[in-house]
Design a protein that fits this description.
GO molecular function, one term: L-threonine 3-dehydrogenase activity
Largest sheet: 6 strands, parallel
Oligomer: single chain
Shape: globular
CATH class of the largest domain: Alpha Beta
Number of domains: 2
GO biological process, one term: L-threonine catabolic process
Number of helices: 11
Structural class: alpha/beta
Bound molecules: (3R)-3-hydroxy-L-norvaline
Organism: Kurthia zopfii
Family: Belongs to the NAD(P)-dependent epimerase/dehydratase family.
Helix content: 40-55%
Strand content: 5-15%
Distance between the termini: 40 Å
Order of helices and strands: EHEEHEHHEEHEEEHEEHEEHEHHH
Number of strands: 14
Strand order of the largest sheet: 3-2-1-4-5-7
CATH topology of the largest domain: Rossmann fold
Protein name: Nucleoside-diphosphate-sugar epimerase
Radius of gyration: 19 Å
Length: about 325
């Protein structure tokens, strides 16, 4: 990777991915694109609606990109509320990105998700290769996307790679429209209000990961020796699996007065119930040495330290 173009650069992953890649590869070697310009962006930026195939192609060509990271997509809860729009955007945008990668011979990354599994998949230690019958539009998009990316590799030789992200937790950009967003919101509320009402029920386990580990995984996979890859789209990866009362207990270690109660959102609970409780990541470990550095306690300590500072600065 030398010159990287990113779509969805203002999203929860995209916004931090741009910063990491600019630190690692040089600011001018990373072109950030999104449908609207962010309030702050130092470095190359272009407005791009991923449904505009011609502009996507033009931007990648003018930038002389050698890598395309396609991060623009609707997340699970939003997609479930707008299924036709979600299909058109998630699949139309992905097809435009894959066609750009094919025509310009770009290395390609796009994320899949634990949402690519459904209720008929084994919940514990979900295998890399197993049944994938998701019951959400987001999951249908992710399975179709995995198959499309593998097709572009086998049919056209595009170097496509992807990971199935668990819920991602970060202290920079709030997620929008996800089922796992509760695991981010809880930290903000713990600091600002000392209380959180969880829309996900107690006992609902989901795989999760701190954003620094997610960003490292993207770069490690993209820099991995392609000859080692048996799988490509997309690798199971996770760092931890927890349910709401466990993250609340982790927060209480640092904010003893913190309290949580539950008001379950049936729509997002139904999505969460259809996903695995824990993933088997052995393929990622064997094929490109995946590892995660943050567990629940280390992440919680870092989240509370960083968010306390950020929210204090915002208030001043
Ligand atoms: C969502 N954060 O909740 C995303 C992610 C595994 C969850 O795909 O939709």
């Amino acid at each position: 990777m030398k010159k990287i173009m990113i779509t969805g650069a203002c999203g929860q992953i995209g916004s931090e991915l741009v910063e990491k890649l600019r630190r690692d590869y040089g600011t001018d070697n990373v072109l950030a694109t999104d449908i609207r310009k962010p309030a702050e962006m130092t470095g190359p930026f272009e407005i791009l609606d991923v449904m505009d195939a011609e502009k996507m192609m033009q931007l990648a060509q003018d930038f002389e990109a050698d890598t395309l990271m396609h991060m623009a997509a609707l997340l699970s809860a939003t997609a479930e509320n707008n299924p036709v729009f979600a299909w058109n955007l998630n699949m139309g945008g992905l097809m435009n990105a894959l066609e750009t990668a094919r025509k310009l011979n770009l290395q390609f990354f796009t994320p899949s998700s634990i949402g690519a599994f459904g209720p008929s998949t084994e919940k514990e230690n979900t295998a890399q290769d197993t049944l994938q019958r998701p019951t959400t539009m987001y999951g249908v998009n992710k399975v179709a996307g995995e198959l499309l990316c593998d097709y572009y590799y086998t049919k056209f030789g595009v170097d496509t790679r992807g990971v199935r992200f668990p819920g991602l937790i970060s202290n920079v950009t709030l997620p929008g429209g996800g089922t796992t967003d509760y695991a981010v919101e809880i930290y903000y509320k713990a600091i600002t209000e000392g209380h959180y009402t969880s829309y996900i029920a107690e006992g609902t386990y989901m795989d999760m990961m701190y954003m620094p580990d997610a960003l490292d995984a993207i770069v490690d996979l993209m820099e991995a020796d392609g000859d080692r890859l048996v799988h490509r789209n997309a690798f199971n990866i996770t760092a931890m699996s927890f349910e709401p009362s466990q993250i609340a207990a982790a927060i209480k270690k640092y904010i003893p007065s913190f309290e949580m109660n539950y008001e379950v959102d049936p729509a997002r609970q139904e999505i969460a119930d259809s996903w695995p409780d824990s993933l088997d990541c052995s393929a990622a470990k064997e094929e490109w040495d995946f590892k995660a550095n943050y567990d629940l306690d280390r992440m919680t300590k870092d989240m509370i330290e960083k968010l306390t500072l950020k929210l204090k600065n915002q208030a001043s």
